[in-house]
Write a structure and sequence with these properties.
Blueprint (H helix, E strand, L loop, with lengths): L2 H13 L8 E8 L6 E7 L2 E5 L8 E5 L1 H8 L5 H6 L4 E4 L1 H11 L1
Parallel strand pairs: 1-4
Antiparallel strand pairs: 1-2, 2-3, 4-5
C-alpha cells in the first residue's frame, strides 16, 4: 500500500468519525516503512484534520508499519495488542494514544 492510499483512507475515516466528545487531540503517525511516512491527525473544535506533516505540539506520536496501521484502521488489529507485541510504539501521552484508538473505532 502506498503512503497516499493510507492518507486517503485515514481522511475518509476521519470524515465519518464522531468527535463530538473530544476537545483536543493531536497525534502524529510515523509509518516506519515509508520515507517520508509522517502525517498527523488533529481533533480541534470538533473537526478532524489529517495532513502529511509533522506536528511539533502533538500529544503523542505513534510509530508502526503501514500494514499494521491499516489492519488497525480496519479493526483487524487491536491497538492494545499491537502495543504489547511491539508492533506499535508510543512516544508521549499514553492516555491520548488510547483516546485516539477509541476515535478510530
Amino acid at each position: 500500500m502506498k503512503f497516499e492510499n493510507v492518507l486517503s483512507k485515514v481522511r475518509k475515516m476521519a470524515a465519518e468519525t464522531d468527535v463530538s466528545g473530544v476537545d483536543f487531540l493531536a497525534v502524529q503517525i510515523n509509518l516506519t516503512d515509508f520515507d517520508p511516512g509522517v502525517f498527523y491527525v488533529e481533533v480541534k473544535d470538533h473537526k478532524v484534520s489529517v495532513e502529511p506533516y509533522e506536528y511539533n505540539d502533538r500529544n503523542c506520536a505513534i510509530s508502526m508499519k503501514s500494514d499494521d496501521f491499516s489492519k488497525m484502521m480496519d479493526g483487524k488489529l487491536d491497538p492494545v495488542l499491537a502495543f504489547t507485541t511491539g508492533k506499535l510504539k508510543v512516544e508521549g501521552d499514553m492516555g491520548k494514544a488510547l483516546e485516539f484508538s477509541k476515535v478510530l473505532k
